């Protein structure tokens, strides 16, 4: 770690983070910098949850240095993250600089374009939000699902992943046009979001007409009930756009794992996807869910 010590003269805080479990592997803090009392990287931001826009995970996936801004206790920070190997594992080198009292911030205030804290919050949210539906996007899935899976290994809670796909969506686009197709996607997203507990579960648009449903802390029976309730709600909803009215259905493939189950997030999605294809091949408009015990 000695080779990165010189960075302390340029940044207020230097640390190496393993974003897969948000653990701080190495840290340097000058005496005047706020003390970190916890061992998770997101504790510094005092959000009691992982960052929506996890720049360290993004830097590792993109294999390049990325930059973002964050607000904490009225201070504005510049955050840089770069891939950094520690003992054969790729982690992230995070460099944090307090830029509250700089010409950059003064320029924003003088122009009075917007309050910078609000601007940064909106920018960070936009990175992980699907433009069309307002749900989380694929990037959010790839950055947050691995952590959710890892965290259940420290608890006694199950986690379930469902993939919901709109049946015959191409026919909708062909018959009514892509603008109507977009409205159907937005409507389905609204139904899905209303069917979960926002405080711990989440929904994302995974791509095209596919949605990811993540349910934490429930048994297999409850997850099946949630999936079936979503399917029935979609089936019963009239799609009304101008002078057009029609119904759509969805198919759902799901998989759940126990805290003791060792599973990579991509394998879990692949397993749910296999069950989705089974639902499609069995006639669509149905849910096929399994629970993996090992």
TrEMBL record:
<feature type="domain" description="GGDEF">
    <location>
        <begin position="157"/>
        <end position="292"/>
    </location>
</feature>
<dbReference type="InterPro" id="IPR050469">
    <property type="entry name" value="Diguanylate_Cyclase"/>
</dbReference>
<dbReference type="Pfam" id="PF00990">
    <property type="entry name" value="GGDEF"/>
</dbReference>
<protein>
    <submittedName>
        <fullName>GGDEF domain-containing protein</fullName>
    </submittedName>
</protein>
<dbReference type="InterPro" id="IPR000160">
    <property type="entry name" value="GGDEF_dom"/>
</dbReference>
<dbReference type="InterPro" id="IPR043128">
    <property type="entry name" value="Rev_trsase/Diguanyl_cyclase"/>
</dbReference>
<dbReference type="InterPro" id="IPR029787">
    <property type="entry name" value="Nucleotide_cyclase"/>
</dbReference>
């Amino acid at each position: 770690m000695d080779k990165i010590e010189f960075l302390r003269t340029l940044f207020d805080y230097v640390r190496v983070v393993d974003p897969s479990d948000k653990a701080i592997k190495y840290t340097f803090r000058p005496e005047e910098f706020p003390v970190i009392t916890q061992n998770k990287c997101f504790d510094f931001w005092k959000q009691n949850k992982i960052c929506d826009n996890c720049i360290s995970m993004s830097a590792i996936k993109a294999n390049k240095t990325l930059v973002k801004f964050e607000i904490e206790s009225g201070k504005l920070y510049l955050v840089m993250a770069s891939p950094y190997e520690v003992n054969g594992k790729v982690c992230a080198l995070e460099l944090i600089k307090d830029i509250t009292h700089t010409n950059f911030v003064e320029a924003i205030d003088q122009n009075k374009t917007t309050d910078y804290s609000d601007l940064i919050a909106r920018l960070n949210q936009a990175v992980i939000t699907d433009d069309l539906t307002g749900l989380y996007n694929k990037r959010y899935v790839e950055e947050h699902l691995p952590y959710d899976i890892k965290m259940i290994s420290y608890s006694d809670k199950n986690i379930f992943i469902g993939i919901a796909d709109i049946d015959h969506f191409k026919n909708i686009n062909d018959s009514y046009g892509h603008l109507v197709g977009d409205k159907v996607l937005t409507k389905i997203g609204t139904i899905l979001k209303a069917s979960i507990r926002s405080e711990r579960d989440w929904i994302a648009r995974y791509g095209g007409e596919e949605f990811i449903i993540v349910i934490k802390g429930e048994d297999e029976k409850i997850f099946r009930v949630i999936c079936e309730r979503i399917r029935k709600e979609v089936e019963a909803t009239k799609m009304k756009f101008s002078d057009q009215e029609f119904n759509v259905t969805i198919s759902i493939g799901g998989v759940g794992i126990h805290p003791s189950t060792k599973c990579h997030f991509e394998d879990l999605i692949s397993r749910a996807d296999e069950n989705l294809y089974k639902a499609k091949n069995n006639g669509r408009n149905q849910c096929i869910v399994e629970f993996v015990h090992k």
